[in-house]
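Teaching assistant here, posting this on the class forum so everyone can see the example we discussed in section. The complex has two components, and the goal was to see what a joint structure prediction looks like when all of them are supplied at once.
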Amino acid sequence: MTNNFVFDANMAAKTINVTREFDAPVDKVWRAWTEADLLDKWIAPKPWRAETRTMNFMVGGVWLYAMVGTEGQRHWVYAEFTAIEEGSSFSSIGRFCDGEGNPVLEGPKSYRNTKFMTIDGNRTRVDMVISFEDESTIKIFTEGGFKEGTFMSMNQLDELLASA
Amino acid sequence: MRRDVFQAIADPTRRAILTLLVTGAMTPNAIAEHFDSSRQAVSKHIQILTECGVVTHVQTGREIHYHFNPDKMKEIDIWLERFRKMWEDRFDQLDNLLNDL
């Protein structure tokens, strides 16, 4: 079955639209995006694995997880929930973290809105809009350190933050 | 002021200048002839494109030619491709998870 994956970048607007269909009802897909033990099972691209430290799915709450590499290296990912419509959409702000998982509040941010809708009766379409503040932000978030399977070193991140 | 590729392509005139330069290097006068706006306005756009790194210039005698710099634009394609692949991989893993749920 086709999953109609769309990844559409509008660089002038600094926005990326991502759409994907899943062969499961919306309540299951919603759980997979909002429950820590489920998120940990799919959010890290192999060979990385995800380990959630904090998940507080409410407006103002935070999801903090580590991408853990094959050699135990950790890269923290931080999202703060800014709006939630139970079962249909949520928004979050992404921030960079230092090596201990503390968010760098004055650092670059990304914004994400994710919508869930039922299609064909028992399938789900997810529409996600990711937006960025500027080029350096999009660069750090898209590279996210995934260069050749290793995350960017903290030194490189510090440099980017300093130039932001 | 810090410039980035997004500022380069955010403006319709600048996008039009880039499109012109893709077909070959041009002098500022030759570029300006394609636009109704003042020569001064066009040269301001060229200056911004240069500061963004998407256009370079080469001086030959008294003539300056502006060139399109595809490497700068390619940078973006590389980040985006990486990002797209990451989401694709995640979604494939999510498919598997949903099957078991």
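For the discussion questions: Chain B is about 65% helix and 10% strand. The first strand of chain B starts at residue 55 and ends at 60. Think about how each of these relates to the inputs above.
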